[in-house]
Every structure is written in structure tokens, then in C-alpha cells.
Design brief:
Length: 124
């Protein structure tokens, strides 16, 4: 019997009753943990970039893509927090001398950096 185009491309069939149905399972993808940044980006692309989301999902690349975005965002976040703290003079000495002021400064820096990461990576 002549192979169908589906079979020529590597597809297989499963017999169910009297019918042969194509096996249309998505490609296996490696499960990677997705952090808060990746989940934010997932929500964003689901709402605003539906074609990109569907393409990544059907190609089996969504999990890897989100893990990569999450890692990039996390690295960027910690690097910018460290740089801003050094630039603004928020040191361990300040932490030892006046903890409440240090916490206020660090919260301010973290909020600024969160906005930067959201703008540059997550909501694009």
C-alpha cells in the first residue's frame, strides 16, 4: 500500500475500531521550572500576542521559551539591584547603622528595577 504524505513525513496511525486515526501528539518538551517572571510573560503573550503563544505551544517550545525569559529577567533584576544599590550608596554599613532606612532604600530600588525588567523583557 502506498504511504500517505503524513506517513512520509514520519506520522503514524492508531487503529480505533474500524478506523485509523493519526497520532497527533505535540512534541515532547523538557519540563523546566517557570518562575514569576516567566509566568508574567506567559499571561502577557496569552492576552496580547495570541499568535506567538499558539505557535510556541504547538511547536512544543513554550516551556523552554518561558524558562529562558525567566532566567534572563532574574539575572537582569539581580544585576540592576546590585548596580543601583552601589550607585545610590546603599551599603552594609547603612544596614548595620539604620535598618529601617536601608529597607526603605532597597524597597525603592527593587520597585524601580521591577519596572525596568517589566518594560524591557516581560511586556514586549
Amino acid at each position: 500500500m502506498k504511504k500517505t504524505i503524513f506517513e512520509q513525513m514520519g506520522g503514524t496511525y492508531t487503529k480505533v475500531g474500524d478506523y485509523y486515526l493519526p497520532d497527533l501528539l505535540p512534541a515532547e518538551q523538557e519540563e523546566q521550572p517557570i518562575g514569576v517572571w516567566g509566568q508574567r510573560h506567559l499571561r502577557y503573550i496569552k492576552q496580547h500576542h495570541k499568535v506567538r503563544y499558539t505557535n510556541l505551544l504547538t511547536n512544543g517550545k513554550l516551556n523552554g521559551y518561558l524558562a529562558d525569559i525567566d532566567k534572563q529577567a532574574e539575572d537582569m533584576f539581580f544585576r540592576l539591584v546590585k548596580q543601583m544599590a552601589e550607585r545610590e550608596g546603599v551599603t552594609e554599613k547603612l544596614k548595620a547603622d539604620n535598618q529601617m532606612e536601608w529597607v526603605a532604600w532597597m524597597n525603592n530600588i527593587r520597585n524601580k528595577v521591577t519596572e525596568i525588567v517589566n518594560t524591557e523583557l516581560i511586556f514586549t
